[in-house]
Amino acid sequence: MDEEDDYWNTSETKEKAFSFDDDVLSPQEILAIGKNQSPGQSDDLFTSTSISNVKTVTLPLSSLVSPKVLDLILLAQSGKDPKPVQADPEQTVAVTIKRLVLGRPASLYGHRSLKSKTELLEAALAVGDGNAILTVVLFLIQTLNKKLVYELLSSRPLALNQYISFLQNEGKISELTDLLTMLGRSPDAAMYQFQQQMRAQGGSVDGSLRKVTNLVANHFNQPGTDAHQAKMLADYVKLLEWQKFAAKPILDHKSALYCLAYCCTNHWHEGAGNMMSPLTLCQRQQISPLQYDWVVLNVHAKSGKWDIVESLFTKKDWLGRTTVSSHIPVESLLARLSELKASRQLLATCVNKVAASHDRLRLALAYKIHAVVIETYAKQKDRQALTNYKMTLNPQSEDYILVENTLRDNAVKWKN
Amino acid sequence: MEQPLALKLTSLCVISQCKLERILSLCGDKKDLIIDPSLIKPLERICGVSWLRQHGIDKIYKMDPQLGPTANTNRVYFIPACVQKYKCVLDQISSVLSQNTTLSDKNCFHIIILPKVVCSFDALLENRGLHGIVMLHPFTWELMALDEQLLSLELPFLFKQFFVEQNHSLLSSIPMALWSLFHVIGRPKAIFSAGKLSASVLDILEVYNETYNRDFLTEQSSTEIGALIVIDRSQDYASSLLTPATYSGLLSEIFNISCGHLELNVEDTKIKKGKLNFDFEEQNAQTKSTIMTLDSSIDSLYGEIKHRHFSEVLSVLSSKAKLLKNEDIKALGIQEMKHFVATKLQQVTLFKQSLVNHVLACETIISEMSNKFENLKLAETEMLNNKNKKSNFTFVDENFGTDIHIYNSLRLMCLLSLTQGLSYDEYNTLVNKYLLAFGYKFLYIFSNLITAGFLIQPSSLKLSLNISNLGNLSDRLPKWQNSFQTTANKLKQLPSQPENVGKSTPSYVFNGGYVPLISVICSAVLTSDSLLEILTKLSALPDLKVGGKILDTFKVGMETFNEKLSNLKPQNDFEFGCRDAKNLSKLLKNDTKLNSVFPLKPKSVLVYVIGGVNYAEIAACDVVQKTTGSKIYIASDCIASGSDLMAASN
Fold it and tell me: B84: which chain A residues are within 8 Å (Cβ-Cβ)?
């Protein structure tokens, strides 16, 4: 197997990169060398020299472009006309659109017939310059009645989207709602309304509660509204009501899981039925068992309440052995327990839950759960692997002694 | 004397400087600069504080809605073209004016808007009664050379505007940047575009070419760049959604990178910040972290490891450390010491600093990602190949239920949706978990992801039967054949044995699972013997167009902008700067005149990605340029990781 090929795929390579091996230095060793001072170097120099201070060399302007070309570039940026402005250029559609694309001032008021206006829009769309499209659409809004404009826009999605984003950016939400409703897109209008309100969020929970309740009543109960979206907003209302009841500023506008974590920390022992009990919140917001377990695990482990973690996530089986029981899949649980610095014991219990010995060994190696590694090698009667593993352990450690004892154990019939 | 291309590219900032100088000269003699904080870093690439002072800037302030009186009456604001920021500046000017009405005649308010002044800005100025009092100045700075062969416009907000908001007002800033770039490096004779925005960019570019056609401009094609490829980000979302396996790719997953500068914050990484927070104390401890410049011409060590598969990086760093160690051991005499201090000391010091930084970065990557990387890559590869849909959904669902991340989890959901699809119930299960974790207010994010094309909206059966939706019924029915795999297979983007992919194929950037589209297009353009061959290889691309001098033989008459527009038929593509590849293929079969252009000469390509390119794509192109013996220059509005694109939907 080519170990170089996939660094992450084998825990062996990971071990190697970290081990004090002759071939590859560990990060700590490299850091030691890097931080080691060069002869004659003072501390001062080291800290004051930063890599970004190195200045790059540039060519003089004249070897990049000629003065004439530079003038052209500056002219293009400014969007001004070249010196002699024609007295009265013909106001064709093409001339107007070209001026718009170049960012030059252009009056559109010469285009008065519906045909000419439609051509303007078509031409702007053909070029695809959003600024030209928007300019034409805003001109149409000023000079045509809404019905005609909406008709023109409804068959031209590019122009419509450009206009929608304009209305949204300008905060003209009622106009946007009118437009979308007229086009039979009320659900989209509802979502824009929602987005607008959420972005402007702040202030009291009570205020948000009123806003969201209104939105649900006026926009999310119409035919065509997505049932799940409506349910999510109903759940939102429930959460805001709960936050209003809790009256804790720290929880205002926070997510359901954040509130749950708060309840787990501060109201763990309150029973179901009590508003601040984690169970009540869980039922109210229909938090899945998986998410509940995850929050509970993190909250209690972080505050060092390992007794609660163990009582919740382990149980004794009928033989009296301790085993892990959680909605969190074993591998994720193990990874998280390891990050949270759980006891060796708990990690071992967790990895022992993995049925397939191949996977168990892989995980035990990855998380350095030595007892499980040793036990698994012994079960596989693999003396060689166990002997090699011994080399990676600290000679004074308990685990080292465990390996030695296991190797000496006469009950094991080694295969090699 | 002809200068090397690399030097020309790093010198583009000199032109930007001229552009800014011209604007500042219109803003009075002594003035204050009030700058949006996001523009400080890129501006530093154009000029320094002393240059600004030489051009009349007295004091510099960060733009802040609460900004009080400033030193001078002349105020020059410098902001990106975002309506909210613009309104904020107008509010501030109005309030200054209300305190001192005489200022309205003094021509003392200027707003420099990057990269363009949008028509609605003009209207807003008039609407607020500020027309004639406040001057607006468009400033389109040139592409910035962030690294060797890597250029960026540093307009990171374009993706959000173009794809999430569907607002294309600033699109013309891209052809303008390309147009001035071509005055420096020459115009490539072959041009390709993939995607609707890219086609518009070529059309607008042609408008510039036609308008600013002067007799002192050379008609000759570039001797340095053979072809230009412009591509919409939306043509290859998979490359943004997948987790990269290269060093620079992983750096961008973990650390904030802007304008080529990485903030080496090993405590508070992007991964940590995006996860559920279970601490109830506000954390305000702002640690100042080291800044690393991701530029190989400054940090040669970075140049050596940036494109490497992450598994190799530590051993490279280790071998460098050993070399240093040996150097240290050497006992130096007084003379040798003097020589060392005079010639090599600073170099060695910088090198050590860079070594330390890269090792710290590696350690952080390992501690943040090593537990999950294997399973993540496995699930991603299965999704790409449309295998084990059920277990892939379980994987994503578990991720949403446990270690959910505000952006990275969305990436997984989007990837699954694009490659294998999500049913109405599956979709809502994930949405529900996400909203519980981060707040119901984020419901709109999913609509935005659908608009941007990251998610395919599933529909409930009830909805499909609604009469008003009957017209779209065919779109809403589940597809048995996934279009993602059909296209990706035709373009050879899915290696059949991901686990056996070597380092010399572009797919290594995603651990063998996927070849980024831009490297596929580059490879086709660089290795084909005729235009027809390129078009055949890329025939699965829906919106491919071709432009440039190579098409001159097909032009009927002059075909000016005016003529083209007046002959435009409704619903037809404009095709001013480029032509549809499918129609062209038919013509080419009967015509061999064009074959002289290919194989491409000079063998070099410039790729512009509209909406942000990522480090994995850059590394994949590096493989292509090495295997084909060519040069690939990459340009974009910014370097954006998958999580940056997700953040744009917020």
Answer: 169
Distances (CA, A) of B42 to A49, B7, B54, B146, B393: 22, 19, 19, 10, 41
B41: contact with A, CB 8 A cutoff: no
Of all residues in chain A, the one with the smallest CA distance to B375 is A9
Q: What is the ipTM of this complex?
A: 0.92
Q: Give the total number of structural domains in chain B.
A: 4
Judge if B359 and B397 occupy the same domain. no
**Chain A residues 234-263 with a CB less than 8 Å from chain B:** 235-236, 239, 250, 253-258, 261-262
Once rounded to an integer, what is the mean pLDDT over residues A160-188? Answer: 92
- pLDDT score, position A16: 34
In this complex, which of A64, A223, A250 lies closest to B184 when CB atoms are compared? A64
Q: Cα-flanking dihedrals φ and ψ of residue A324, to 5°?
A: -85, 140
Residue A202 or residue B408, greater confidence: B408
pLDDT of residue A276: 94
% pLDDT > 90, chain A: 51
**CA B222/CA B186 separation, integer angstroms:** 4
Which residue segment(s) compose the domain that B422 sits in? 389-481
Q: Same structural domain for residues B156 and B132?
A: no
Strands B290-293 and B544-547: unpaired
Among A94, A134, A255, the residue with its CB nearest the CB of B119 is A134
The nearest CA of chain B is from the CA of A47 a distance in Å of: 9
Do residues B307 and B222 both lie within one domain?
no
pLDDT for position B369: 87
- Tell me if B162 is assigned to some domain: yes
Domain limits at A20? 1-32
Helices marked H in B173-246 — which ranges? 173-185, 196-211, 238-241
Tell me the mean pLDDT in the region A375-404: 88
Where chain B has pLDDT below 50, the residues are 463-480
Is B88:B121 a contact under the CB 8 Å cutoff? no
Residue B608 C-beta-side C-alpha neighbours within 13 Å: 28
Q: Is the pLDDT of residue A18 over 50?
A: no
Look at chain A and report how many structural domains it folds into: 2
